Amino acid sequence: MTGAGTRFDLLVRGGLVVDGTGRPARPADVGVSGGRLTVLPPGSSSGPGSGSSPGSAADAAEVLDARGRVVSPGFVDVHTHSDGVALLGPAGDGDRPGNGSGDGSGRELVRASVLQGVTTEICGNCGSSLFPALQERLAAMRAETRITFGGDVGAYADFAGFAAAHAGVPRANHLASLVGHGTLRAGVLGPVDRPARPAELRAMCALLDASLTQGAAGLSTGLIYTPGSYAGTAEVVALAEVAARHGKPYVTHLRDEMSRVEEALEEAVEISRRSGAALHVSHHKTAGRYAWGRTERTLPRLAELRAGGMDVTCDVYPYTAGSTALAAMLPPWANDGGLRALTARLGDPAQRDRMRRAIAEGVPGWENTVGNGGWDRISVACAPRHPRAEGATIADLAAAAGADPLDVAADLLVAEDGEVTIISHSMIEEDVRRVLAAPYAMIGSDGVPKPGGRPHPRWAGTFPRVLGRYVRELGLFGLEEAVHKMTGMAAARFGLTGRGVIRDGAHADLVVFDPAAVADRATFTEPLLPPTGVDAVVVGGAVVVRDGEETGARPGRVLAL
Ligand SMILES: [Zn+2]
After folding, report:
1. 90 C-alpha vs ligand 1 centroid, how far in Å?
2. Structure confidence at residue 297 (pLDDT)
3. 448 CA distance to ligand 1 centroid (A)?
4. Quick one: which of 295, 323, 292, 126 has its CA closest to 218?
5. What is the Å distance from ligand 1's center to 60 Cα?
6. Are residues 511 and 531 in contact, defined by beta-carbon separation less than 8 angstroms?
7. For position 89, what pLDDT does the model report?
8. What single string gives the DSSP state of each residue in 371-386?
9. What pLDDT does residue 359 have?
10. How far is the CA of 440 from the centre of ligand 1 (A)?
11. Is the pTM of this model over 0.85?
12. CA 282 to centroid of ligand 1, rounded, Å
């Protein structure tokens, strides 16, 4: 249909533009040519007889009718664990029937993000990325990532290797990646519980430096997770200094998000101050009964730091439940040596008793989710060999079996080679709302797309849930602010130049949604149900979703930042 003299590849006509900066919505048409945007006066392209006007439909190869709809920049999901899901492929070895909606296949998992309007995912969070590692450790890393990511996704020497692997798999949206500190540590030391030696720390810094030079987005830590948790503050400072030299952020899953969340936040502040790196707090929460309400202290602290000139931001997902690995419910020493060492320990009744006592009594410096909440708040999300356990709490499974919950969890871990995903119902709504409303909080799904089971619905529902539930239904903040949190604010934090805004010359990543209808449908029982009201998604100028359905276009790529 592209005729001679066609001015635009695509014209999004008649919509209300919310441009991602936080400025008020305004009617405008948006033209796309060569993957870049041109903002046109409203009506310049509408109506009969407008063939000679600058944005005429006659001048466009393709037109999206956005009347009654909002046109916004494509959403940036700043916090994902989608590092390997595209590499699993449509018939990845993880393809098994899911218990919820759809088949839970790699293809369905990949689709869920783009159907909610995400045009850029940032993976490599919580200290876990698929790179980098020393050559001699790559084979061992591959075995661990196979377990962690639910299939053969590989481990890569550096960001360039990761990008090359993804380049072979066409994708609908863009992907950027942080460098995970836990991966760095495993890639140099292995999964061991000891401080890094000076030469090892130098090697970690060199690997980080190389990947940041190649385009990785920053440094992430997950200081509750092994092996990241084996590191002291000084080790993280040394690595954050490397990020600071690149002008890239230090992104952290705090060492404790429960009863000691305030101390953990101060450690992050210290790391940022000593290293000079900007600080981004991942999925900020104050979870567990002892920390409920504590956002009334952490958020004023963050506001105070910002007022004092510190560059600190956070992200949040709009749910009162989190999701992580069942193994993370056990004390750090239980995971020393990696998953195989863990399953060996779990086979020893004496070691199990030690773990039971550690959970009951606590271990200094360890978050202890179960001690802060209870096994009745932990439900099984993914346990491929035990589909009937999926959806049940550990407490329920224990009651049904007449067994102790720790033994039920331990038996499950052993039978699943250490890899079981759980959902932790650990937060209260008031805290979630306070964080969402913080003016420096952006939106990140924290989605963990793995084949099968019942993953947390946030991977399919986060962005529509904020727009539907928190903006339209509850009026927690305005539409322009919500879109800013999902786009411009996120792009600025992670150096996504020319993205997250609608203005002349910006990259043509767009979402067209119905502000009166947009809503999440994904639930804990049907976790991959696509949202309503997300009509169209444009990536790099190509329409990847039209009328809520994928078009099959695959313009996405790995972004080097
Ligand atoms: Zn995390």
Report:
1. 27
2. 98
3. 10
4. 126
5. 44
6. no
7. 59
8. HHS-GGGEEEEE-TT-
9. 95
10. 18
11. yes
12. 6
